[in-house]
Amino acid sequence: MTLKEFWHRLGSPKWFYQMSGRWQSILAALAVLLIVAGMIWGLAFAPPDYQQGNSFRIIYVHVPAAILAQSVYLALGAAGVLLLVWRMKMAQLVLENLVGFGAWMTALALFTGAVWGKPTWGTWWVFDGRTTSTLLLLFLYFGLYALRRAIPAREAAGRACALLAVVGVINIPVIKYSVEWWTTLHQGATFKLTEAPAMPASMWAPLLVNVLGAYCLFAANVVAKLRTAILRQERGAAWVREWALRESTR
Amino acid sequence: MHPKRRSRLMTVVFVLTGAAAAVALMLRAANENLNLFYPPDQIAGGEAPVGVGIRAGGMVLEGSIVRGGDSLDVAFVLTDYQGADFRVAYSGILPDLFREGQGILVRGQLGADGIFQAEEVLAKHDEKYMPPELMPLAEHAAGASGRR
User: Fold this and answer.
1) Is A187's CB within 8 Å of B124's CB?
2) Domain tally for chain B?
3) Which of A30, A81, A198, A238 could form a disulfide with B128 if both were Cys (CB 3.0 to 4.6 A apart)?
4) Which residues of chain B lie closer than 8 angstroms to A189, CB-CB?
């Protein structure tokens, strides 16, 4: 299968449904395995921080949640471009079904940040660059949710959401570089592409496992949501009726 | 690429570029106000307003912490280790991470006498995490290479 064929097939809900059953189980199993292992490793076995003690361990939830919050939004932006330019059916489904997951991850990042901030910084919340731009990300997710429900026509709602998703992507580099552009209370990035993390492997290895697990959870979530949405959208199609008959007589 | 798709792609690129430029200009215009705090050189250099609620930050200078005997009063000096520093007076409970050499943010007002009257003291930490048993090694390395 060439890349072009794969691209065309990915746009076909039927092909995606038939192929993705196995992906979903693999991704879900990987997610559970990595997150359970990463959490036990990080929360029970990784060493405490020399100055923060055990409060530091919330990094094992906070960083994966924050990375996902931004990655989900980037995925929405990419789906927005695919929908606006190529009118891809699957892109509309992605736009409709990923908003909730992204909003929950952003809320989790903000909540764990507050819980971490109280014992270390001495405050739950400060309006600094990083925290404010992350709050804006949460409001963008709320906006996408509300916009889709405000427009009754599905296609028009999809395009409006696609435009908001694409324009909102501007906030992602702002979140990323907020700790470098301005003076903030928030510390710098834990993982950088250009240099090794400023902590020993016994601390960053469990974090990496948790981040990978979070990405698997994200992927499993996308596949599961899309499969349900495909059945709903294509419920009149012959292949769905055949599938339903097969499943009900089994 | 299909001409229709090409034109739609151009529209998306155009809208995104325009919006990004608008945001960049706005952030640039607001740059000073987006900084959360004044560093020591701006406080010492008289760039920070006097008698207005602001935030300032710096490292707690070693040996500068003076505690009031029976009260929660505390005074200390915040420095950037590069020659600029200012004095802070505060009354209240300090965060757990407060100690010499720690990055600290204070919210309050800069007095005409140059002393910062803090209403809130927050601790800033960096992204360098370390197990406690590695501390002696790190201190030894810092001592060998000469502290800032």
Assistant:
1) yes
2) 2
3) A198
4) 127
B118: CATH: 2.40.50.140
Inter-chain residue contact A183 with B27, CB threshold 8 Å: no
- Domain-embedded: residue B131: no
Place of tokens 């990987």: A30
Count Cβ atoms below 10 Å from residue B113 Cβ, excluding itself.
9
Residue B40 contacts residue B86 (beta carbons within 8 Å): yes
- Domain extent at residue A185: 24-46+57-240
A188 within some domain: yes
* A19 falls within a domain: no
**Number of domains forming the structure of chain A:** 1
- Tell me the pLDDT tens digit for each residue of A120-171: 998 999 998 899 999 999 999 999 999 999 999 999 999 999 999 999 999 9
Residue A195 has what pLDDT?
80
Closest Cβ opposite residue A120 in set B11, B36, B123: B123
The dihedral formed by the CA atoms of B135, B139, B144 and B148, expressed in degrees to the nearest 10: 140
Beta carbons of B121 and A122 less than 8 Å apart: yes
Q: Does B27 touch chain A (CB under 8 A)?
A: yes
What is the DSSP code string of A22-83?
HHHHHHHHHHHHHHHHHHHIIIIISPPBTTTBGGGGGHHHHHHHHHHHHHHHHHHHHHHHHH
In a domain, A11, yes or no: no
Q: Is the pLDDT of residue A14 over 80?
A: yes
Query: Which domain, by its residues, includes B20?
Result: 3-28
Query: Is residue B92 domain-shared with residue B24, that is, in the same domain?
Result: no
In this prediction the pTM is 0.89
User: Residue B115: what pLDDT?
Assistant: 92
Q: Which amino acid is at B18?
A: G
